[in-house]
Amino acid sequence: MRLGVSLAVVVLVLTAGCLGGSNASGYLSVERVEELPQGEGAVSYDNLSPAQQEVFRDALGEDGSVTLEKGTDRNEFIDPGYVRYDGEIYRTTVSVP
Q: DUF7979 domain: from which residue to which, for each copy (predicted)?
């Protein structure tokens, strides 16, 4: 049982580090969509931190993609993966090199 718990903790730590963590640089891609998929929600731009707002605006101005620097929280860009901004809906995707 102890091995199972330890393995679960390792998987959780690795997942958090790769997806939601801020220990490595990555890329944020932003794409405008016509509507949300059924059952999905979107985070309001106003609910993003100032750093997240800045990187989101940068991605809009850079043909939809920008580098996420170390230390930038990216959870809101992953889950739910949609942002409401200026009356539009944008799908956000984070990738790690």
A: 26-93
Q: Does the structure show a pLDDT above 80 at 70?
A: no
CB-based contact 39:97 (threshold 8 Å) = no
Q: Are 20 and 94 in contact, with CB atoms under 8 Å apart?
A: no
First to last CA, the chain: 35
Is residue 80 reached through a cis peptide bond, with omega within 30 degrees of 0 on the bond before it?
yes
Residue 32's nearest CA partner among 97, 83, 96, 94 is 83
Q: Where are the domains of the chain?
A: 26-95
* Distance (Å, whole) CA 37 – CA 96: 24
Rounded to whole angstroms, how far apart are CA atoms 95 and 51? Answer: 18
Q: What is the mean pLDDT of residues 35-60?
A: 92
- pTM for the full predicted model: 0.70
